[in-house]
Fold this sequence. Notes:
Blueprint: H1 2-16, E1 20-25, E2 30-35, H2 37-177, H3 181-247, H4 252-262, H5 284-308, E3 320-323, E4 326-329, E5 336-339, E6 342-345, E7 351-353, E8 358-365, E9 371-376, E10 381-391, E11 398-399, E12 404-408, E13 419-425, E14 428-430, H6 432-438
Antiparallel strand pairs: 1-2, 3-6, 4-5, 6-13, 7-12, 8-9, 8-11, 9-10, 10-12, 10-13, 13-14
Helix pairs in contact: 2-3, 3-5, 4-5
Amino acid sequence: MRTRLAIRIHSALEQVFPERRVFLKSDTDTRFIRLRPETQLFAFAGGSLVVAWAIVATAVLLMDSIGAGNFREQAKRDQTTYQARLNDLAAQRDNRAAEALAAQERFNAALDQISVMQSELLASETRRHELETGIEVIQSALRRTINEREDALTALAAFESDVTTSSVDTMLAAKENGAPVDFLSQALARTAAERDEVVADAQDALHKADELALEIALMKEDNDQIFRKLEEAMTVSVAPLDKMFRDAGLPTDRILDQVRRGYSGQGGPLTPLSFSSRNLEPTEDMERANRLLGHMDTLNLYRIAAEKAPFALPVKQGFRFTSDYGFRRDPKTGGRRMHKGVDFAAPLGTHLHATADGVVTEAGWSSGYGRLVKIEHDFGIETRYAHLSKIHVKVGQRVSRGDHIGDMGASGRVTGVHLHYEVRVGGKAVNPMTYIKAAQDVF
C-alpha cells in the first residue's frame, strides 16, 4: 500500500514539479544533478517561508516604527502639557506663598495692635480705679462740707434770731457795760463771710463732682470702645488658629492643655492676669476685662502651639512639587508602592529649614533615604528630611522653626536633586500637605 501511495503522490507532484536535471560540464567530464519532485517541493516551501517571514518582519518593523513615532509625539505632547501644568502649579504656589506672607504680616500687625490695646486697657483700668478713689474722697469731703454748712446755717439762723430779738438790749447793755458796738458788727460780718465761704465751697464741690461724673462717663465710653475692638481682634485672631489646628486633625483642647502645663510657672509669659474686685461683687467691666484676658491667654497658647507643629514649608526659595503623598508607580519594578511624603525639587544646595520647634533625633546616612535628618516635635509629631547633600545639625540639638538644618541634594535612592519631606504622627506617616494647606490663611 505504501508503494502505491508513494507512486500516486510522486505522479501528482510530477505534474506540478516535473523532474529536472542540472548539468555540470567540465573539460573532461559531464555530470548532472537530478532534482526530484519532492526536492523541488521542499525547496519551494522553504523559499516561500523565507519570503513570507521577510514580508511579515518588514511589516512588523514598519508598524513598530510608525507606532514609536506616534508614541514619541504623544510623549512630547504629554511632557509639554505636564510642564505647563507644573508651571501653573508653581505660579499658584508662589501666589499662595505671597498670600501667606501677607496674612502673616496682617496677623503680626493684629498682635501688635492687641498688645497696644491691652496696655491701653490696663492703663485705663488703673486710671478708672484712681478716679473712683478720688471720687470717694471728694464725696466724703462734700458730705462733710454739706453737714458743716448745714450746722453753720443753723447756728447762723439762731445767732441772727438772737441778734434780732435782743439787738437793742444787747447794744444798750454793751453801751452800759462799755462794750463797743463795732465789735458786734465785726463778729456778724465774719459770720456772714464764713457762711458765704461754706456755700461757695459746697458749690465748687458739686461742680467738681459733676465734672468727675462726666469724665467717668466718657472714660466708660472709651473703655467700651476698647473692649469692642479687643473682642473683635480676639475673634479675628483666635478663630483662624483654631481652624488651622482642626483642619490638620489635631485635638485643640488636648494640645492647649499640654501647652498650658508646659508653661504653668508663676510669673511666666502665660500667667493670666485678672482684675480684683476687692472682696466686692465684680462689675461688668471687670468680668469683661477678665474674659478678654482669658482670650489673650488662649491666643498665646495657640501661638506657642503653632510654633511646635509643622505648619511651615521646609523650602523657602523657589521650588516645585514633583511627587505627592500616596501610591505611585515604581519606575524600576513597575509596581505600585506607597510614597509616605512629598517631594520638593530645587537646585542643588538649596537651604532646608525646620518646619517646627523640636529636637534632632537622627542626622546621618540611612539606606534609601540617603542623608537624613529626623526631628521630634511635641504632640507626638516627627518630621523627616531625606536625600540631603549636607547636614548642619547634630543629634540632640534643639532647633526652632525656620532654622537651617541642611542642604538639598540627591543622596540615597533618587532620580534627581530633591527633598523628600515626611510628617509622622504617633509613628504613622500622614500627608504633610494637610498641615501646609491648613496654615495657608494664617502664616
